[in-house]
Amino acid sequence: MKITRILLTIALTSAVAFTAAAHGDKKDKSPEGQAAKYRHNAFNMIGYHFGPMGDMVKGKADYNKDAFAKNADALASLAVLAANGFEVKGTVKGSRAKKKIWEEKEKFNAGMKMFQENTAALATEAKSGDMATIKPALLKVADNCKQCHKSYRAKKD
Ligand code: HEC
Fold first, then answer.
1. In a domain, 119, yes or no
2. Is residue 45 part of a domain?
3. What CATH number should be reported for the domain holding residue 35?
């Protein structure tokens, strides 16, 4: 019995350690740790909504006007929320946010603002149902993801 409990404890502890490495420490209640968790949650939701739109634009999935518009609306809201995750200065182990973000916060904020404007424009375009204007609007947003990650997101360990 005792051995089983010890083994179980070891297994659970290593599972927690693994999660901590990938997504910050869940038990980290510091403002920096909480902000990192907020960022991860926001960007995962951003990825969730962006993926299907990308597939529709690329022709990997059938275009569905309503589904696309719903994803575009959610993305525009999340782009506003994501900025909150950078208000606390500094980063923590397990986060891929580079220190550079807070060293040149105005430049970072300008990139975030562009992302918010372009996602709002995409949400407006999505209502037209016209792929000829939706596609360039989506490509602008995709470029925002790419550029910001290039400058401010550290590579995976
Ligand atoms: C203004 C900068 C910026 C923009 C724009 C941006 N990201 Fe990110 N993204 C980041 C940073 C910084 C991180 C790392 C956050 C961390 O680890 O604390 C990140 C992390 C992520 C992650 C990983 C989340 C996790 O659980 O570790 C995903 C997925 C992601 N971004 C998707 C996107 C997509 C898709 C877009 C565009 C639709 C986008 N991002 C636009 C800065 C940005």
1. yes
2. yes
3. 1.20.120.10
Ligand 1 atom 6, closest CA: 145
More confident residue, 156 or 141: 141
Pocket flag, ligand 1, residue 115 (CB < 6 Å): yes
pLDDT tens for residues 38-76? 999 999 999 999 999 999 999 999 999 999 999 999 999
**How far does residue 73's CA lie from ligand 1's centre (Å)?**
18
Range of the domain at 70: 29-152
* Residue labelled with tokens 């901590």: 20
- Global pTM exceeds 0.85: yes
Q: Quote the ligand 1 centre to 42 CA distance (angstroms).
A: 8
Please identify, by atom number, the ligand 1 atom nearest to the C-alpha of residue 94: 17
The total domain count for the chain is 1
